[in-house]
TrEMBL record:
Protein name: Aspartate aminotransferase family protein
Spans through the membrane: none
NCBIfam families reported for this sequence: PRK06917.1
Alphabetized UniProt keyword annotations: Aminotransferase, Pyridoxal phosphate, Transferase
Signal sequence interval, chain numbering: none
Keyword Transmembrane helix: no
Length: 392
């Protein structure tokens, strides 16, 4: 087995229950990060296991070119109902990376079906992460992950992140007049709007920054710039979606509707590999008038087992009011961590929304060592690595 670090010993998992994981040596761990911000409803939920068993006994897989399935149709309808605006069309895949690549393809195809052939670039931000395949990595402004493949990646990251704590353009909010957002306008002018299909961003920066929340006006400025230049706005909600930030989707916090939205992680909640690209009526309209086929797909896309599982996850969240509870518990936890910060010499910043919370350490502190010590003491955390100047 090729592990994340070959030759490194990893504990052997035994089982999980609720927020706890247990290895085969009897050690108990508090899963403080839901794995990779994934297991949002906890481990070992019987209602989900029962649905998986029932669906597996009925039909686990059909090829999407031959059949549709009731679970997939119901899940698409549920996501349409939960989403704001006219985000009514779902394309199901198996990972957030695939969802973002599908979003990229749909954005380009949207313009092709309108008879516009030159719009094929996807702009993005530095200090971002959208996936590890070549297309998704091209959109990712993560130097550490890009460096090995930089010669064959597209130069899609073009603007700085809305990272007020350590502003990349050395300004101070609000006197900065959102220079990090208006930089998009300058990038479009430099590259040419006629070449750009979409701009993609994580509503709250995750793996590349650790729960970096933008100023409240940021996304309105971004969306207005995109709309003015006939450029689609893709919200990468792979980490933030499905209740993690205290709302079903993080873009709800700012009242801005994306043209395309991607989901992953929390959609399957660790019970199944499941992700989605959700597309607005406006974006789909020329495709429906034209080829009627999105040029993407994978063997296991929209399989009934994963769709039924994801639907059960959402219904469980609705039944237990988890987005609302996440907002309440997140506020409580952030306040508690800020109190700890006041007494600490190593905590530089505490930030986030809901239960997507980042604790940034002082530059002299090595986060990887702290996380290792925490794990040895039964607390599992998730490290966000910017890859900028070698910083953790």
């Amino acid at each position: 087995l090729i592990k994340p670090l070959v030759g490194q010993p990893y504990p052997m998992i035994s089982h999980g229950k609720g927020v706890y994981l247990y290895d085969q040596n009897g050690n108990k761990y508090f899963d403080g990060s839901s794995g990779a911000i994934t297991a949002g409803i906890g481990h070992g939920v019987k209602e989900i296991a029962d649905v998986i068993k029932k669906q597996a006994e009925e039909i686990a897989f059909v090829y999407r070119s031959q059949f549709t399935s009731e679970p997939a149709e119901k899940l698409a309808k549920k996501l349409s109902d939960l989403s704001v605006g006219d985000l009514n069309w779902s394309f199901f895949v198996n990972s957030g990376t695939e969802a973002n690549e599908t979003a990229m393809k749909i954005a380009i195809q949207h313009f092709q079906e309108r008879g516009i052939q030159g719009k094929h670039k996807i702009l993005s931000r530095w200090m971002s992460y959208h996936g590890i395949t070549m297309g998704a990595l091209s959109m990712s402004g993560h130097p550490l992950r890009r460096q090995r493949f930089v010669s064959i990646l597209e130069d899609y990251p073009t603007i700085p992140a809305p990272y007020c704590f350590r502003c990349p353009v050395q300004k101070v909010y609000p006197t900065c007049q959102l220079a990090c957002a208006t930089e998009l306008e300058r990038s479009i002018e430099r590259i040419g709007a006629e070449h750009i299909a979409a701009f993609i961003a994580e509503p709250i920066i995750g793996a590349a920054g650790g729960a970096v929340v933008p100023p409240k006006e940021y996304y309105k400025v971004i969306k207005d710039i995109c709309s003015h230049h006939d450029i689609l706005f893709i919200a990468d909600e792979v980490m933030t979606g499905l209740g993690r930030t205290g709302a079903w989707f993080a873009m709800e916090h700012w009242g801005v509707e994306p043209d395309i939205m991607t989901l992953g992680k929390g959609l399957g909640a660790g019970y199944t590999p499941m992700a989605a690209t959700i597309v607005s009526d406006r974006v789909m309209e020329p495709i429906l008038r034209g080829s009627r086929s999105v040029m993407s797909g994978h063997t296991l896309s929209a399989n009934p087992l994963s769709a039924a599982t994801a639907l059960a996850v959402i219904e469980y969240m609705e039944k237990h009011n988890l987005p609302e509870k996440t907002a309440e518990k997140g506020e409580y936890l952030i306040k508690g961590l800020q109190k700890v910060q006041q007494q600490s010499t190593i905590i530089a910043d505490v930030r986030g929304k809901g239960l997507l919370i980042g604790v940034e350490l002082q530059p002299f502190t090595k986060a990887s060592e702290l996380i290792s010590v925490a794990a040895k003491n039964g607390l599992l955390l998730y490290q966000a690595v910017s890859g900028q100047a070698g910083k953790e």
